[in-house]
Write a structure and sequence with these properties.
four-stranded antiparallel beta sheet; zinc ion binding; alpha/beta; about 20% helix; seven-stranded mixed beta sheet; NAD; metal-binding; about 25% strand
Length: about 350
Amino acid sequence: MEENRNTTAGLPIKCKAAVCRVAGEPLVIEEVEVAPPKAWEVRIKIICTSLCHSDVTFWQMKEFPGVFPRVFGHEAVGTVESVGENVETVKEGDLVVPTFMPECGDCPDCNSSKSNVCSGFPFKVFPGMLRDETSRMKDSKGEVIHNFLNVSSFIEYTVVDVASIVKVDPAIAPEKACLLSCGASTGVGAAWKVAGVELGSTVAIFGLGAVGLAVAEGARLQGASKIIGVDLNPNKFEMGKVFGLTDFVNPKECGDKRVSEGWGKTIILGVEMHGAPISISTLEILKGRSIVGSLFGGIKTKSDIPILVKRYLDKELHLDPFITHEISFTDINKAFDLLLQGKSLRCIIWMEK
């Protein structure tokens, strides 16, 4: 390990990446060059990564911010290979998870309990690094390969800004830490940080994908007495019981009864609505209904992800059932097939297995 770091730190690294060159087409394993980290940046050796539905959304996107060629992936875990100037919070060899949500630690929002959206690095989807919006990846012809969500983890080595890096306890298995990089944290956080689910309360979850089931897990941890899953796939109920689901509703079987009856707080997660507007009558608002949006489930990455790691190590937080498949990096396109067919929650993609 020491010899490898001494021979690569400060130099470009040639490695394998799964590159998407055309929207919606299979990824191609290519040799690429990854530049050394600049100031405030960290180069990571990816141990494993997984496929999130947001990756699929942008993989299919033909117009900006869909840009190509691109290395997707933003849910991952790895070890620090080298660091750039001014990086003091992590060092070579540390186990880290990269995240699409930066936390600079200095801005008013990072120092407030009311927000997890860093105003030092406002959230936006653009193909480049946080500070200079350029890429650290080039293909064999020297042409730029675009970044994705500050991470680009479908690659053996990637460069991430230190504001998007979280050091985690090495006692956690890499594939479990990987889940906390996006999906599991988003869902658990939505129940914990945004909804503020209280002991004995009732929670309804619309859509039981990985994030929806993570919401159930978060509601269970918060002590909800009734957790209702709403999904078109009845098989999700048995799967969801592991995460605390107590009831299941199939919208196709509701007849004339509205699934959304009742007052309460509605939390919107994910990017799948593509910016589509929503409407709600003022009467519903007056009766007590509220709608709240959330990025990353309200999670403050550098402080809250280590808490979730500890809760997993203390056997409170369930992460293992999210992993439905494990494949090698060379088979990465199978992960897309499994997700599109609705057969997987999270498919772990191992770099060296």
